[in-house]
From TrEMBL:
Pfam families for this protein: DDE_Tnp_ISL3 (PF01610)
Domain of life from the UniProt record: Bacteria
Domain Transposase IS204/IS1001/IS1096/IS1165 DDE residue range list: 151-383
Organism: Congregibacter litoralis KT71
Extent of the signal sequence: none
Official protein name in the record: Transposase
Matching InterPro entries: Transpos_ISL3, Transposase_DDE
Amino acid sequence: MSHAGVILGLPELEVERVDRNDAISVYAKPKQRPCCLHCEYPRVRIKATYQRTLKHTRQGNQLITLHLRAPKYHCPRCGRYFRHRFKGVRPRYRASEAFRHEVFETHDGGVTQAKLTRTHGISAATTERWYHGHCERRVSEMSNRPCPKVLGIDEHFFTRKRGFATTLVDLRRHKVFDVRLGRSQASLDSYLRRLPGKDNVKLVVMDLSETYRSIARQYFPGATIVADRFHVIRLVNQHFLNAWKDVHPEGRRNRGLLSLMRRHAWRLKPEQRENLQRYLSDYPGLAALYDAKQHLNELMLLKNLRKKTAQKKLPELLALIEQLRHSPLRRLARTLTSWLEPIVMMWRFSKSNGPTEGFHTKMEMMTRRAYGFRNFENYRLRVLTHCGWDGIINRV
């Protein structure tokens, strides 16, 4: 049995015997005496011995129970007493850290609390307490994270009663930095004023939200605001489809034509392009709007341009906006003018809020699996545990 302690994951144990019945009972003791915890004197004596019984992982379908002979030591130098500390076992706990981590991973993988009660011999309340404690420990280890240099900010729905929440994402690491309740400047003011390392933020990516733009200007004054490419193109398409509805409502209800109008022109097949041109030939005004929309989307898709190249493209964009100003898309022209600088910044940088939208989908799945959250702090704890920064080493 010289290697039994290594197999169990506790190499400092000396296994005395193993009993196998409905479960596996392992009787073990420490291999050697430790130094004094207070003065590090190496020659401590055993004052008394007591037994600790705790759960420790599973072998097949059988639960391993450890019966540890735990000495109580006395130090002749400092005269103080202390109990033996087993690596991987916390004082006064009835389960090893390996077992608690196994329960966390199993429950996180979708196994219900009732199922864990039958397979691991613990109650549903214990499972919930361990799961919640593991999440709290991981989030506490993330408390000293540096503020990200590239920050994505967006909103998502939480509950009908509590409203919306704001998601802050580290777009370089593709991890959620934090989640806060509310989406107004008043609800986020106290958090953002106390946020350390705000000067580290160089880019803030967002959709075309005036609220978030004012927040970025006030709390991240040294950051460059970049508009999210997906939301800009979606806004252009929405305004074009609304103008199409005013020109020809019947054509707007045709699902085939709707599919062709939404796509980029360079992605259409030759026969699809011919069908679309045949339809647009009957509506010259709509054809002009369609060409302007395609040209605008081509400009919106540009990225990673050098400064000189972006400066050459700017007059082309301004001319196109001026053309839209004298058309049914005048509201779109006003919006593009208001957000001209963040839109131009899209040409210089390739970052977008795509990871943020992906995390929102994951948060929605977490909410569905939990049958909804009432407590926002519990919800935030789950989000940061599963979507937060992974620069953490799981301590088992």
